[in-house]
Amino acid sequence: MDLVIEFWRRLTQLGPRLPLEWALGCGLVALALVLVAWPAVRLLATISHEAGHALVARLCGRRLSGIRVHSDTSGLTVTRGRPGGPGMVATLLAGYAAPGLVGLGLAWLVSIGHAAAALWLTVLGLAAVLVWTRNLYGLFVVALLGAGIAAASWYAQPLLLGVLASLLAWLLLWSGPRPVIELIGHRGAGSDAAQLAAITRVPGLVWCLGWLGVTVAALLGGAVLLLPDLAGLLR
Fold it and tell me: Distance between terminal CA atoms of the chain?
């Protein structure tokens, strides 16, 4: 019981707002990682992508069979239900939008002082993904990431919690548009865009541009939330 009380205290604690230079530094570090360490960062984006598919599939009443995360940074979420219809369309739409939208949600939590909640909710999300992961590499990566964030969240001081949560939010925000841009140039037959085109008769490029708009909008919105002082200076 004491452990549960302590966990709840940590989950709900308010932290200090990061100074502008720290918040901006987190954004620049995350951008550098996206540019120079993309394979590692893409694993984070892939996990978020597949989690988006899985969550929306369950909300739409589809049966979730499993999630796979592969060493080449690709992923796969298998669901069962009607091969078409609104539920399948929503499930397919969720993947590429997920990293940016999750990053925006984390940015909002950080902006209102709940960096600890942002990290612990990420851990809970990774735990849910872990339950449905069906390959060894995926299990290893998701478990390692979840354990690392949990350990950091438990032992870090409030200021460091803010840095970690901001960095995580920025990584997801920056990594949102890049897979969409890559997809525009390589829309294979099994891609989400190709499957949506087959179901809806709307060209795959239209879906890609929609995802790009969502992820760029999430990036801009997240930047405003994470850099309120800079936005004030610019005004």
Answer: 49
- Give 53-56 contacts, CB < 8 A, sequence gap 24+: 53/77, 53/79, 53/91, 53/92, 53/94, 53/95, 53/98, 54/79, 54/129, 54/132, 55/94, 56/90, 56/91, 56/93, 56/94
Q: Report the C-alpha gap between 232 and 68 in whole angstroms.
A: 43
Whether the full predicted model's pTM is greater than 0.90, yes or no, is yes
Please, which residues have CB within 8 angstroms of residue 14's CB and are 6 or more apart in sequence? 113, 114
Q: Which helix (H) or strand (E) holds 76?
A: strand 75-80
Helices assigned H by DSSP within the chain: 2-12, 20-36, 38-59, 86-111, 115-132, 136-155, 158-175, 177-185, 192-200, 204-226, 228-234
Q: Give the model confidence (pLDDT) of 41-75 as tens digits.
A: 999 999 999 999 999 999 999 999 999 999 999 99
The residue with tokens 């019981």 is 1
The two tokens of residue 98 are 């997920």
Q: Which of 215, 209, 217 is nearest to 178 (CA)?
A: 215
